[in-house]
Request: fold
Amino acid sequence: MESAVVSNQAAEFDYLFKLLMIGDSGVGKSSLLLSFTSDSFEDLSPTIGVDFKVKYVTLGGKKLKLAIWDTAGQERFRTLTSSYYRGAQGIIMVYDVTRRETFTNLCDVWAKEIELYSTNQDCIKMLVGNKVDKESDRVVTKKEGINFARESGCLFIECSAKTRVNVQQCFEELVLKILDTPSLLAEGSKGVKKNNIFKEKPPQADASTSGCC
Reply:
């Protein structure tokens, strides 16, 4: 299912950036995206496959079109989402500060996926600890998040999709870093000419390797 947030700025923009949100199911990826694009919060059911929203912003004096892809966290959708890494200038890795396994899986599962599928070696990564509104249930400390981000070469922020704390900053910091990276800027400029980010198709599975379920 595709949904988009559009504005009067849709007519023209300087750069088109593709951002990808990854992480375990239930960490709040869709809620973060909704909070950023429509200023609201909802407890959403798990994403099936992939969804995306569009947000027009002006940052660093540039008009930007952000195509933000929200991927399913469940294992059964993993092969479906691999193609969506292609061409992403920014990747947002989300975990839930109240569920340690969502944090360890970023290292054990998701970081390896980025290595495997990301086509941009300069791609900017942002580590996001979500649900800080549940401070009394926290099991992953901020220091652990900072250390992991430092080791992985990621930006880092903690936020709450529910209270909207740091949600805007999360996306803005990521985009400003992309704007500071010449190779990604060049790609974003190309994207404006093509504007074909939404026409990508997942690669066809090889007949010899595809099987049922």
